[in-house]
Amino acid sequence: MNRAETALINSPPRRWLQRLYEVPVLLRFGGRLLPGSRALEIGCGSGYGSQLVLQRFGAERIDALDLDPAMIRRARGRLASYGDRVHLVHGSATDLRAALNADDGSYDAVFDFGIIHHIPDWRAAVAEAARVLAPGGRFYFEEVTAHALNRPTYRRLFDHPTDDRFTADQFLQELRRHGLLILGSVTRIQGDYLLGVAAKPLPAAGAR
Ligand SMILES: C[S@@+](CC[C@H](N)C(=O)[O-])C[C@H]1O[C@@H](n2cnc3c(N)ncnc32)[C@H](O)[C@@H]1O
């Protein structure tokens, strides 16, 4: 993430948007987590999203990772008061075994606040999010499409991978390819952003 995006992401307007618009939309689609839930935030940045996951979604514990060690340091400062309810690590969302030793089905919820479009192999990040979700677990996502990334302002100001970016439909199709079911509808904003929640189905009764 370049300086311009780091400043924008951590600015008060972005935080208001996240807290007052994105969180209510995601709560409407996916609801709060059950008591005792264990969550993961991929690409946690400075930790504001993880704080919202604890406070507003009701996670008991959260593991959060970021590729940028400077972000992990900032998140550590922000989240210190939560003690051992928070576990922060430096690592990639494309390999959660290496970063967190995360087995299949380890989390009740995975949160993606605008990170997967940053990852060259974005499909690997989707595959990992789906793998580590427990049956019945939920994937809460807020993403940026190729349409937005191709806008002249985005290209001039920010630094994103340019090859193989996704449309909203391609992103949703990739979730379905990994067995995740979209809950209710998906909010799409001008073809540029999408917000929604997908669930990993519980095994059929006879298969349990
Ligand atoms: C646009 S910022 C969003 C940060 C945070 N989720 C928020 O909403 O404030 C994208 C973040 O993803 C991180 N990131 C990029 N590639 C990553 C990867 N492969 N694994 C984990 N984090 C990654 C960046 O370091 C950056 O902190």
UniProtKB/TrEMBL annotation:
This is Putative S-adenosylmethionine-dependent methyltransferase/MSMEI_2290. Residues 40-137 form the Methyltransferase domain. GO terms for molecular function: methyltransferase activity. Its EC number is 2.1.1.-. GO terms for biological process: methylation. Pfam families: Methyltransf_25. CDD domains: AdoMet_MTases. It is an enzyme of class 2 (transferase). Keywords: Methyltransferase, Transferase.
